[in-house]
Amino acid sequence: MPDFSSVRRRIFAPQARDGALRMAIWAAAGILFACAAWLMLDVAVRGAAGLDWRFLVDEPARAGRAGGIGPILVSTGLILAVAIAVAAPLGLAAAIFLAEFLPSGSRFAAWTSISLDVLAGIPSIVFGLFGNAFFSVWLGMGFSILSGGLTLACMILPLLIRTAEHGLRMVPDEWRHGAAALGMSRFSSVWRIVLPAAGPAVTAGLLLGLGRATAETAALVFTSGYVDRMPSSLLDSGRALSLHIYDLAMNVAGGDRNAYASALVLLLFLIVVNGLAMSFSDYLLRKRIAA
Amino acid sequence: MTLGPKDEAAGEGAAGYTVGPMLAGPECCTPEPVIGVRGLAVSYAGVPALKHVDLDIYKGCVTALIGPSGCGKSTFLSSLNRLTDLVAGCRVAGRIEVDGVDIHGPDVDVQALRRKVGMIFQKPNPFPLSIHRNLDMPLREHGVRSRDERESRIRAALSDVGLWEEVADRLDEPALSLSGGQQQRLCIARALVLQPSILLMDEPCSALDPLSAETVEKMIVGLRGRYTVVVVTHNLAQARRIANFAAFFWVRDRAGALIEFDTCQRLFEAPAHDLTAAYVTGRSG
User: Which residues contact A234 (CB under 8 A, 6 or more apart)?
Assistant: First the structure.
């Protein structure tokens, strides 16, 4: 019987184990980076060919194979505007209530917290079904920009509330006590001191929500619809950019070129939005350290 | 309210109980109680922090609260402007009168009370706003509409704390860009701008470097006579330098209790109670 003990000793020696672990970690990181780089490069190279100024403003032609994405950008912008206009004030109000007015140990606070986590984990297609049943059918909005925007608002609300609540809780109590000791009302203390101090965090959360809404496809399939012409009102159906990409790639033979160009537009927009969100949280961090 | 010339006697107050010669404002230390505390007991979530405190605070005087950590000095202080209301689970029993009015009475306006009884915290807490806005906001909050009046009160308050010359040309800069000592003086100015009659200070110098601490201490001495000051301090030498009266707290039966109250000089030089004697001579605490 051959003696493997020396081999075994070498494999399980501490140095060998460290080396293997290090290699595994580098490999994992490398694969991750390579995937991201490949994806971005692929979209950039294939998309750049079809991307020019005319593409951004022209109407799509021949089911999107030719022409541009002008009306689709308008619809996307309107859907996002509806979503943010509804979600931002609601989310902020809920966050202020949770962080500033609800006693932290209460049962209600615990239940709200659990509901938010559950909501945040619901797949977007389910939000789409809900949006269709509630906004499109029950409230009679049909397939419309309004219905799609409201569905997205429901979807990003948990994210907005969570980030804003966290930002508010990061504001040190000494400012709240200082304001109270000056005889300021609870409302002024929140409105004039706590909220501005949490401003960067709230804005970063808003931008993250905006990014998530922009990237959303599934929730819009049943709510804002497919129509690719210029919308004439919020009750018109409008096709979002992500949906346009999906449609060109899956349902339109020969739509690949414009699908890639649209994907590049979407990617660039998301990079800008996420970049803004990150620089805001950086700013917040630096401000904390300086304070 | 204008500022009198700086109190030159500030440095020589070390002898103990002195009546600071104020050139402006009412005479110092009328033996007339402005705050009356009877049977005060405070507990946090059912755990008593302070029991059976009876104490009068005299008008225009500086009263120092001394004693070891955890003996309820800060709790006592924050019950005087009902800042204890902000602490969840905090219960206050007993009676506290400010200017003869029970501050727990049914129709007491807490905001008006806190306007009259200002507070300075241990760690300077200027708002993350400009220097000017730190002072302007409380004035607006309390309905001072006239811009001219606000500006003149801001200037007077900043002069009172000796900050006007230092910041006059950069009022729009962030308050957090000031040094620690300047921040603390700004916080005192922020309290003064509301023209309170009583100032509560919770170890106002302990988070500052020695030089800033000295500046702030001198400033507190300068307030004597015009304001009733109640100051918590761990620094016994400081208590002797600035205070007219001193109250000694100690932990008794696991809760803070007032052991002795007297003029500062007598409390330090001829204490009536053994615990006080042991503490002020450094044998305990």
Answer: A78, A82, A144, A145, A146, A149
The yes or no reply on domain B32-126+197-280 and CATH 3.40.50.300 is yes
Give the pLDDT band of residue B135 (cuts 50, 70, 90): very high
- What's A136's DSSP letter? I
Out of B88, B115, B121, whose CB is closest to A178? B121
Q: Tokens 């902000």 correspond to what residue? A: B86
Total CB pairs under 8 A between chain A and B: 67
At position A24, the amino acid (one-letter code) is A
CB contact under 8 A, A177 and B112: no
Taking Cα atoms as reference points, which of A163, A223, A224 lies closest to residue A198? A163
Nearest Cα residue in chain B from A103: B88
Domain residue ranges in chain B: 32-126+197-280
C-alpha angle A59-A65-A66 in degrees, rounded to nearest 5:
45
ipTM of predicted assembly, 2 dp: 0.82
Give the closest of B113, B127, B191 to A175, CB-based: B127
Question: What is this structure's pTM?
Answer: 0.77
**Which residue of A lies nearest to B199 if distances are taken between CA atoms?**
A181
Q: What is the pLDDT of residues B205-252, one digit of tens each?
A: 988 888 888 888 988 888 888 899 999 998 898 898 889 899 999 998
Residue of B103, B111, B115, B125 to mutate, interface with A, max A Cβ within 10 Å: B125
Q: How far is B180 from chain A (nearest CA, A)?
A: 11
- Reported as a single tens digit per residue, the pLDDT across A56-92 is 878 888 887 888 788 889 999 999 999 999 999 999 9
Interchain CB distance below 8 Å, A182 and B123: no
B138 and A197 in contact by Cβ < 8 A? no
Largest Cα–Cα distance in chain A?
Answer: 88
Q: Which residues have CB under 8 Å from A76's CB, separation 6+? A: A214, A238, A240, A241
